[in-house]
Structures are given as structure tokens and as C-alpha cells.
Design a protein that fits this description.
Blueprint lengths: L14 E4 L2 E9 L2 E6 L4 E5 H5 L5 E2 L11 H6 L2 H19 L22 H12 L3 H14 L21 H13 L8 H16 L9 H11 L9 H8 L18 E13 L5 E11 L5 E8 L4 H12 L8 H10 L9 H10 L7 E4 L8 H9 L3 E4 L9 H13 L27 H16 L4 E6 L2 E6 L1 H12 L8 H6 L3 E4 L6 E3 L2 E3 L21 E6 L2 E9 L2 E6 L3 H4 L5 H13 L7 H17 L3 H15 L9 H7 L19 H8 L1
């Protein structure tokens, strides 16, 4: 506070403006103020509440001083600040008679002595001294009283200028339109954008109507208008930036496990080997719990996730792995085919799977993909009492947690695998397809183990101890703490409920068992039901058979006594779980080889060869030779020139005598021998 400035106070008898009317201060009692309105009504108001009112003001007094914007003052050039301080010394001398910082006992100059000169006379003397008008000095005094040193700054030097400068508004509008059009196109240069802008301006207003700046000014104008848009940078970043919502980001919170589970599907950044020997990227569908960051379920499928995959994901979420029918047997069967050292032993894997949190969702958040809005998925959620919430179109921030989980899986898991492709083409190595060694079942097995031993036990940066915010906790620890805070544990579904979520087929139980798509399933448990009516008249006595389209080694038949697990009769020949698309591909291969694709023994043999070949990968050299041969055969032969060369070309080749017949040695084929005995 300056020496000439007295503190603003509130005294009894003052009139104030408050609550839309005039009031007089009657008395002050501690932190309370007694007021009497102009109509005579008295009231008592807390002083802090009174002074914080938007319309509070003391009538007949100067407005309260405004603090100087110290941050803005620091951004000014030193010459501008020094000019303001010089004016401050002049104004203070006019007000008090002495410049600021004068030593005690220093006499005032005669023309500025308050004892002999009035304020107007002192202001006129300062105007004569500086060679300015009296109005200028009075204006400086007024602004200094209201704003302090900031009021003495030359505002012309701090006035904010627009980024476009003096450019024509029509040109600026065309540049903005061209920048918007660059969002979904391939990244170009500034010169290309300038050419497009010039064409747009001339087409809209005519040639030479809108003034165009110089090349350097054009570049500066484009840089100013494209700030933060990544117009000339990464195309992916540009699209992501343009797709961000206009409002502020609102983090998604959940207070208990299962309150919100986000589900999404995306291609994984790793090449896998299909049963046909081709290398492609696999689709990963995951369900992430918001409260604990637990990955409730993760399903790997070939590119092109289907609606049944989402239903199976829901089944895996709600039914613990040890409770699923035949889970331990399928786990050991899958382990027998893994051509590498196991990360975990089977028993250790089963122990960790039993300890994994099973979260029953209250709400699942999905996007508009046809996989999740299918009738199969929606009806399953409705039957289980799960609310389905759809995110807005083209708004990945509505399910940002599952989107971030995909990035974490790619960086923490996929980049350590053979066949890793990188996040985009610019980060991809050479011949990534040749390094792909994992099949989808093998990669699913690795992913499941990593989720149990790695993800669930790893501290997550978004999970913090409320009493120790610097300490990150793991999803398992967060689940334990939230269950203790909630005070209840949701009941999971039974193994029979897992079967209910599987696809269903209606078949008859014959003497040979059950036939589905040229596959025969049989077991001793079907004995009492052979050639019997199921009791379902609407289905003509057929039996209800459930199957997993990604593991056709078993089917499940519902009877009045319960479920019967029925294996495939040729399972010992294949000895590995296989999917429906693998079976269909094996049938196509059998048909192309001239075999009977309706004979399941023949198809089983082809399927076993297919799975065995998939473990070793395709013969890239043979594939290239075959491809080149087909291309060469498709190219028409060049026409020979007329003359002797043509006659020579048309001469018949000498006849080659056939050689003697070659009798090959017989080789014992166990598969063929087994088929013959069958």
C-alpha cells in the first residue's frame, strides 16, 4: 500500500449496496454486521458473507484498488517497464510532493509542495515539466489509483494481435477450410496446401479479387492457423487430435468392482500363424473393469471378430476358469502341443486361475460395432441383468480405459513376442511375417498366463493407495481393498451357466452318437438316450446340443438329469482343440485333393496334417515358386517375328521316348492304415 493511500474500511453509519437494495450499517458486533434497509427492516449478516456478495459496494467511496498483474508485467520488455516506473515517480510526486524512495527530511520542491500548492497546481506544474497536457497527467493519476503500475504501461505495446495479422478474411476462411480437409487425407507439404487454397479462393471469388500475401507470409499464416492440428505431421496423430471432444476430459470413476466394465476389440500388434499356414494379425477382444483395471476376459480370434465371440467373452467373465466344464482337461491338452518351454506349469496355472478375481459387471460399455450390438450379446446381457451402455459414435474417449489397455498390452506383452509388427508401418521391421511362429491357440495360452502372472500382479499407475498416493497398487490388491470396502462379494455363475451362453444346435441321438457338420460325437453317457424323444415337441424330439465354435473337441448335451460332455470320436487322431473355421478349411483342402470331404475320418486326417504343418509354418520358398509360375502362365506369349525365326519356332520338337516305369518303394503310413481298419 502506498503512503498516500488509506485502507478501505466499513464504519457504522455507512450506506452500502447489498442484496439488490441500499442498507445502512447500524452496528458492528464481532464478525457480524447489523444492517437497516431503506424500508426500515433490520438484519444481521456475517461480515465475510456480506463482503463476498456480488453486488456489495460502499456508497460514496472510491472503488477498491485492483492488484497489479505481476505476471503480465514480467512479460513486458525492460524499456516498457522502465517507462512505467518513470511515470510512477512523477505521479507520486504530484500526489505527495516527494518522489518514491525519498530520504526522510527531504524537502519538497516549491512547485510540488502540498502546503503551498493545490493538487491541480501540482499537476499543471508536472505537465509543464514534462511537456504534456494537464489531461494526460490527470489520466495517469486516475489509472495509477485504479490499476497501479499496470495503469501506467503504454497499452499500445501490449495489445494482443490476431494470429492472422492483416490477412484478408476470405483468405483466412479458405485456409481454415483447407486445413479441415487435410484431416483424413495423407500428409502433404505446405506448398500443396498453398496451391489448394489459391484454387479455392479463385474459384469462390474470382482470379485477382482476393489479395494474396508473399510466399514467406503465406507460410507464416499457415503455421499460425495450423497450430496444434498436426497438419504436416503424423496422419494418425492428426486424426486423433481432430476426433477429441471439444469439452474437457472427464475421467471415468468407479467405486466398486463391476460397476462399469468396458469392452472393445482391436487388431493386435503381432503376426500369428493360421492353421492354413498364412500369417495374419489377430483380433483381441478384452473386458476391463474400471475400478480395479482387472482384465476380466481376453479372447484372441482371427481377424474378423463375430457376435459369438462377444457372447463367449461374457461367459468367460462370469464363470471362473476352474468352474468351466472340461477346462482342466483342455488346458493340459493345449499344454501338450506347446513347442516351447512353459512359462508356468499346468498346476501353477490352475492355482493362479483359481485366485483370479471374477467380476460380475453391473454395466458394460460397448461401441457401435456389429459384434456387440448383435441380438446374441444384447439378449445375454439382458438375461443376466447387465446394463448395456453404448458409447457415442467416433468417440473413443467414452471408453478410454480399454483403449489405453490395448496400448499397454502391445507395449508390455506383444513387443516381446516373435512376429511383433510395431504400432504402425514406420516402426515395422523387415520380413515380420517370416518371424511369426505362434498360432492363435498358443498365443492365447501365452496371453492368459501373462494376464495371471504379469498384469494382475503388476502395480498399475492409475491405481493408488488413498493413504499413500505415491504408491501404486496392482489390480489384485485393488480388488481386495474394494471388496473389503464394499462389504459384499458378488456371486458368480455356475459351470452350467457357462454352457447356456454357448451356441446351440438341435440334433438327434442315434446309435452312432450325434452328428454335427460331418463330425460324430459319442460317449457312454448317451446310451439311455439313443433313438429316444427329447420331450421337445416343438423341435420334433431333437436334443439340445451346445458347442464352443473355437473348441469343437467336445459338445454338451442337455438331458433331464443334467449335462453330458460328449467328445469327438476322432479326437485321439488329432489330439488338439480346433475351431469351426479350421474344420471348414480342412474340408476344403480335402475336396481340393479329390478326397471325400463328407468322410470325417478323411477330414480328420487332413486336419491333423494341417495342425502339424501350422506348427512349422508355411514353406515360403515353395509358395513363391508357385506364385511366380502362376504369374508367368497368365502372361501371354510374345508373337515371334516373321521369317526364318518363325519357321524355326514352329518346327516340332523331336519325340522323346518314354523311360522305363519307376516302381516306388512302399512306405508305411500309420494314418492310412488306421483309416483302412476303421
Amino acid at each position: 500500500m502506498r503512503a498516500d493511500q488509506s485502507a478501505a474500511v466499513l464504519r457504522p453509519g455507512d450506506w452500502i449496496t447489498y442484496d439488490g437494495g441500499d442498507h445502512q450499517v447500524v452496528a458492528l458486533a464481532g464478525i457480524s454486521v447489523r444492517l437497516r434497509s431503506a424500508a426500515g427492516t433490520e438484519s444481521v449478516v456475517l461480515a465475510s458473507y456480506l463482503m463476498a456478495a456480488p453486488d456489495f459496494a460502499v456508497t460514496g467511496t472510491e472503488p477498491l484498488p485492483v492488484l497489479e498483474p505481476f505476471g503480465l508485467l514480467a512479460t513486458l520488455p525492460e524499456a516498457v517497464r522502465e517507462a512505467a516506473r518513470e511515470w510512477e515517480r512523477h505521479v507520486v510526486e504530484v500526489e505527495t510532493g516527494l518522489p518514491p524512495g525519498a530520504e526522510p527530511g527531504t524537502p519538497a520542491r516549491p512547485e510540488y509542495d502540498p502546503a503551498s500548492r493545490s493538487l491541480v497546481e501540482r499537476a499543471q506544474a508536472k505537465a509543464d515539466e514534462l511537456g504534456v497536457s494537464l489531461r494526460t497527467v490527470q489520466g495517469k493519476r486516475s489509472r495509477y489509483a485504479q490499476q497501479g503500475l499496470w495503469g501506467l504501461v503504454d497499452q499500445r505495446l501490449v495489445r494482443m494481435s490476431e494470429a492472422t495479422g492483416r490477412a484478408d478474411a476470405r483468405l483466412v476462411a479458405a485456409i481454415r477450410e483447407a486445413l479441415d480437409a487435410e484431416t483424413h487425407t495423407s500428409t502433404g507439404t505446405r506448398s500443396r496446401l498453398i496451391r489448394r487454397v489459391v484454387k479455392m479462393v479463385e474459384a469462390a471469388h474470382g482470379e485477382g479479387v482476393v489479395p494474396l500475401p508473399s510466399k514467406n507470409t503465406f507460410y507464416k499464416l499457415i503455421d499460425a492457423l495450423s497450430t496444434g492440428r498436426h497438419t504436416f505431421g503424423s496422419a494418425v496423430t492428426r486424426r486423433q487430435t481432430a476426433n477429441r471432444p471439444e469439452g474437457p476430459f472427464t475421467p471415468t470413476f468407479a467405486d466398486r468392482p463391476g460397476e462399469q466394465v468396458q469392452i472393445d476389440s482391436t487388431p493386435l500388434d503381432v503376426m500369428v500363424m493360421l492353421d492354413s499356414g498364412l500369417t495374419v494379425r489377430a483380433d483381441l477382444t478384452v473386458a476391463v473393469d474400471v475400478a480395479t483395471r482387472t482384465i476380466c476376459a481376453a479372447v484372441l480370434r482371427p481377424v474378423g471378430t463375430k457376435a459369438v465371440d462377444a457372447s463367449l467373452l461374457l461367459a468367460r467373465m462370469l464363470v471362473p476358469e476352474p468352474m468351466r466344464p472340461g477346462w482342466s482337461q483342455s488346458l493340459r491338452m493345449a499344454a501338450s502341443r506347446m513347442p516351447h518351454r512353459r512359462l508356468l506349469e499346468v498346476d501353477a496355472r490352475m492355482e493362479q486361475a483359481a485366485a483370479k478375481p471374477v467380476i460380475v459387471p453391473d454395466t458394460v460399455v460397448i461401441d457401435g460395432g456389429k459384434v456387440f450390438i448383435s441380438d446374441t450379446f444384447i439378449r445375454a446381457c439382458d438375461r443376466l441383468g447387465v446394463s448395456v451402455q453404448r458409447s457415442r459414435p467416433r468417440t473413443p474417449t467414452d471408453k478410454a480405459i480399454v483403449e489405453a489397455t490395448f496400448s499397454a498390452i502391445n507395449s508390455l506383452f506383444c513387443q516381446h513376442l516373435a512376429g511383433y509388427t510395431g504400432a504402425n508401418v514406420s516402426r515395422r521391421g523387415e520380413k515380420v511375417e517370416d518371424r511369426a511362429v505362434w498360432t492363435i491357440p498358443e498365443l492365447q495360452d501365452l496371453l492368459d498366463e501373462w494376464l495371471l502372472a504379469g498384469w494382475q500382479a503388476r502395480p498399475h499407475d492409475a491405481l493408488r493407495d488413498p493413504f499413500r498416493p505415491k504408491k501404486a497398487v496392482s489390480p489384485n490388491d485393488k480388488y481386495a481393498s474394494l471388496v473389503a470396502a464394499c462389504g459384499y462379494l458378488p456371486l458368480v455363475l455356475r459351470g452350467e451357466d457357462y454352457l447356456e451362453l454357448l451356441p446351440v444346435a438341435w440334433r438327434a441321438v442315434n446309435d452312432y452318437g450325434i452328428r454335427i457338420n460331418y463330425r460324430t460325437y459319442d460317449s457312454a453317457g448317451l446310451g439311455p438316450h439313443r433313438r429316444q424323444h427329447s420331450g421337445h415337441a416343438a423341435k420334433r424330439g431333437l436334443w439340445e446340443v451346445h458347442y464352443d465354435p473355437y473348441d469343437l473337441s467336445h459338445v454338451f448335451v442337455r438331458t433331464q438329469q443334467g449335462w453330458i460332455t460328449v467328445p469327438w470320436v476322432h479326437l485321439p487322431l488329432v489330439n488338439a482343440p480346433f475351431a469351426d473355421f479350421t474344420w471348414q478349411h480342412a474340408r476344403r483342402l480335402a475336396a481340393e485333393a479329390g478326397l471325400d470331404d463328407t468322410n470325417e475320418a478323411v477330414v480328420a486326417r487332413v486336419l491333423d496334417e494341417l495342425l502339424t504343418r501350422a506348427e512349422h509354418g508355411p514353406d515360403k520358398r515353395t509358395a513363391k515358386i508357385v506364385g511366380r509360375t502362376r504369374v508367368a502362365a497368365a502372361v501371354p506369349a510374345p508373337t515371334a517375328a516373321l521369317g526364318t525365326e518363325t519357321e524355326a519356332a514352329l518346327e516340332p520338337e523331336p519325340e522323346i521316348q518314354p523311360s522305363a516305369a519307376v516302381v516306388p518303394f512302399g512306405v508305411f503310413d500309420a494314418h492310412a492304415e488306421a483309416e483302412r481298419w476303421l
